[in-house]
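Input chain follows. Return structure tokens only.
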Amino acid sequence: MDTTVAKGMAVLELLAKADGPLRLSAIAEQLDLQKSNVHRLLGTLSTLGYVFQEAETGRYQPSLKLWELGVGIISAHPAKRAAAPFMQDLHRSTAETVSLTVLDGDEVLYLDKLLSPRPLRFTTQPGTRAPAALTASGRAMLALTGDPRPVLARSVKRWSKAKDLDVDAVMSELERIRRDGYATSESSWTPGIVSVAVAIPTRGGPAALTVSGPAERISDEKRQEIIEAVLHTGARIAETVGRL
């Protein structure tokens, strides 16, 4: 692995995830790099247009070039292209939050989200992540993988909310998901939130469609309606993905 490229990417990731612009010294300290090394990296990234330095403070922050690249990648993703119109229909019919995610390692990455117009919305934003083992979308996608047990084992060690996770019980749940075609969760990652998800196979790996809402609003009858709607919509998206 080219260490210079790796360090440059580490600088970009740090700046992109920071709450605001950072000083060179802070970047060097957080990445455990020499200031002279960071200065050279920032100079290259600035020349390429990925980073700029504030004239007033001397601090660094990422430019919109990263956003520009990201938008292009997301727009070309087969699941995103196929799902967009169907997500709108599902959003109108359920009046709850609709999400599109993909499986990335041990986590789900949110590609798109349509927020419920009603109070107590599920507010995870596109571009954020959550542990696959603790989300309905993650379990729906894990059910399509060859051996999800290592993911579950790593999650127990990594996430405090997963420390009491019963891996054998989740493996049994994944069998149920494969049989029935959908996954559900309640308060497993976000307290008070009920989610229903279906996996959508794509060339680049599984995606998942999810409807989420507060438990106080999701009666048994409403939950069944959501399950049927998500299964139907997921099948339509999968059919569309297959034609792309």
